[in-house]
Amino acid sequence: MAETTTVALTGNTFIAQPVRAIREPRFLRTVELLRAADVTLTNLECAIPDPDDPPAFAAGSGWGATYMVGTPDMLDDLRYMGVDGVCAANNHVSDFGDAGILSTVAHLRAARMPYAGIGASLTEASEAGYVTSPTGLRVAFLVACDWGPRGALGLNFPWPHGYLASDEAPPFRSRPGVNLLRYEAVTTVTREELEQLRSISERLGWERDKAYRRNGFMRSHPLVGTTTNIGVEEDSETTVWFLGRKFVAGDEHGHRTVPCQEDLDRIFTHVREARRQADAVLVGLHDQSHGEGHDYVEALARGAIEAGADVFFNNGGTHYGVELHKGGVILHGLPSFFLQTEAVRHVPSSVMARFGLPATATAADFLDARERAAQAALAEGGRVGMFAGGKRGTAVHTCVFDSSGELEEIRVQPLEPLGGGIFDVGGRIPRFRGQMPLFPEPGSPVAAATLEHARDLSARLGTEMVVEDGVGVVRLR
Predict the structure, then answer these.
(1) Per the omega criterion (within 30 degrees of 0), is the bond before 171 cis?
(2) Start-end ranges of CATH 3.60.21.10 in the chain?
(3) Beta partners for 286?
(4) 1 falls in which pLDDT band (50, 70, 90)?
(5) Which of 26, 8, 245, 266 is nearest to 131 (CA)?
(6) How far is Cα 113 from Cα 125, in angstroms, rounded to an integer?
(7) What is the CATH number that goes with domain 5-149+261-475?
(8) Is residue 26 within a helix (H) or strand (E), and if so which, with residue range?
(9) Which of 30-34, 145-149, 156-160, 162-166 has the lowest average pLDDT?
(10) Which of 92-101, 102-111, 246-255, 396-405 has the lowest mean pLDDT?
(11) CA distances to 162, 180, 225, 267 from 261, in Å
């Protein structure tokens, strides 16, 4: 039988405490699973700042997120667990601004850990990382991160300072950052509602501001378009721009998203380059708000396959299904793998103040306050269903290539995070010990529910997944 090459894909990983000394048998079986793959990739959900870096200023691109302070020792833990390369494009790699991104790059290079998704320039952030497997097959991986309105698409994100990479010519230095896939939202309202928005904008004098932005004036105003404000806010009989958002008239209320074509073109150029430089090509997106069904995600996923990728994967922490597309595979969502967000030891005092905590408060005080806020939010707004997918289980997705680099199958191995899912607040174990990925015991209801979840969502996408010996299998041939 010809030799195959296996590439294991895992979701979000942030290890706040060393794990190399842990001897929990089921954790060690997970380590064996990752080590057994020829190539293992994970999403490094953090920055690795130097002690003298500037303070954090935009954790997770959110006002109350966790500051994910990675350390060089974390890379040693990942090596111990069998990780061969990291996806670095995500919303936490900019927690410490430009300096934190450059420091993360420096630490990854010093550890000789292949990476993709960040860099000292836009070109570097967009390029593929490469890993040569023990079988000799060369594996390329490219990753991007989303940038646009989150949640229910109600609020625009601000200009991505410390995040948006650029290529510059002398005498200017290129700006470090992340390989972004920017997008904008378009909201459909009734014709009557559209005219009300138009009238409000006119009465409050906002039409003048729109005209200034549209013509390149008011250069201190926030970014409205994905790349520029010039020529963007053009109203029509059926379209009104209101507070930086595009509204159109229609019969039913709803949203759609539009990807930034400039970003898609750049990413696809690098996919085609990787196709000529490697036997297997995998393209990822860190999108932890939307996932399957959103236009900008679908455009990247299908376009990446058509540009030459074998696999597209969304590693934002949501567990979705498997779809076959033109000879390639779309993994619509990899659940978080090992995310110790509740084990951080330091939080900026300015962030604590946002939760009403005094300057003397500690990281544990902040985590307690945020847990209470989460319980209140979930009680009022309902469960965050997308993170609970799989009944609190997680999974490793393994791509199996034949000796010539042709993709043969996808294998989904369910795991059990210690303490349950990331939104299981108030669990029975100390939160600082949670999220350790454990290999399931025979008959595990969590593993069974995780596979049922994956199989059902894949079936909706027209993909047959069979369960064999506790593993979900999708065969391409």
Answers:
(1) yes
(2) 5-149+261-475
(3) 145
(4) very low
(5) 8
(6) 15
(7) 3.60.21.10
(8) helix 25-36
(9) 156-160
(10) 92-101
(11) 22, 12, 12, 10
